[in-house]
Protein: Cytochrome P450
Organism: Pseudonocardia broussonetiae
Amino acid sequence: MQTITLDGYADVREAYRQHDLKQALYDAGGVVMADSLLVLHGGEHRRRRRVENRLFRRGTFRYWEKAFLRDVVHDTLAPFRAAGRADLLEIGYRTIMNLTAMVAGIDQPTGSPEETDELYRFAKKFSEGATMVHTTRDPEVVRAEVQAALDDFDRVFLQPSITRRRALLERFAAGEVTEDDLPRDVLTALLRNWDELGIDEDVLRRECAFYLQAGSHSTADAFSHAADDWFTWAQRDPEAADRARRDPALLQRCVYETLRLHPASPVAQRRALAPITLRGGTEIPEGSFVVLDIAGANRDARVFERPEEYDPMREVPADVPRWGHAFGGGMHACIGTELAGGVPSPEQPTPEQAHEQVLGTVTLMLDALLTAGARPDPADPPRRDPHSARDHFAAYPVVFDAP
Ligand code: HEM
């Protein structure tokens, strides 16, 4: 079978928008990814996405950011700061875990740190299952571990969450509670649209597991890279880095520049359902396997000057997001873009624009981390993930300067 690799910015953008290119990255990760939103195609994808999109309406995350996100970020950081040290991956996962569980519709009845830790272990295992295509471990062993984690997750978290929602939906149908009493989460949306979507309990379980890992892993990864890039920048150009540290709109640009250089998903893969010719002339025969090299396209010198350089203040063409293709595009474009990345802040916001600003979780986390005086632990350098060919940190120890 022919493989075609696209690594130009414009080619990748066009490929994302082709309806005849079908998701193909997660075939190996079926144990957790089969029938999830990210692998559905055509009408099935449209129906599921329409149902889930309603939860991600513009404005929802602006409200979240104003109402409680900052507190979540600060509360999660506080014990690490008090202890004087932390691991960035752990901070990242702990911060985003409860938020992602809320989006997915996974209840945490006790709200204890142990409960978050348990979800964190599940999310990490699901993530390993989803990215099986990149694993350097024995795939059969990984698959068995992921299946066991799914069974435990189902028993401990999912079934109680389903029972509570079904009871609420019955009361809603009986007119005893109103729409406002129903949780706004993926699980409730799926239960309400069960027949229209034609799903079963296994699909439901995988969709919730997929959300848990999709939201948490990429955010934790972006956070560790964003901090690493900023620390390196601060050594090279302390004045510019410090200016960005003090201005959330500039810090957001730092995060976008990190996403461009270290996209959590460095490649996307599709299969051609029909022959396609891209505007630039590339021919994609039917049945071929198409690799969208996101990391490569994000360093396309025709779009990003000095592409290898980390330069958060760079100029980019008006129709190009600063993060390049890090949030994907077309039908599978990341549903959590606004939650994780916020909305790009204008250069010099008016007071009104500043009030409306949505910075996104990664920027809020980076802001809190740097304000707390974090720096890499000189005695314990960061380590890459030895079990993945992807550009991930497995550990990133930091210490906090005394407040
Ligand atoms: C920095 C953080 C994040 C990054 C870099 C990221 C990146 C991506 C990318 C590249 C895709 C498209 C994959 C493809 O086309 O094959 C995607 C899809 C998706 N992401 Fe994210 N994501 C992030 C955060 C989140 C969060 C916080 C959530 C939810 C809480 C989320 C939920 C999803 C879902 C549900 C899809 C599938 C959409 C569909 O297939 O229609 N992501 N993400």
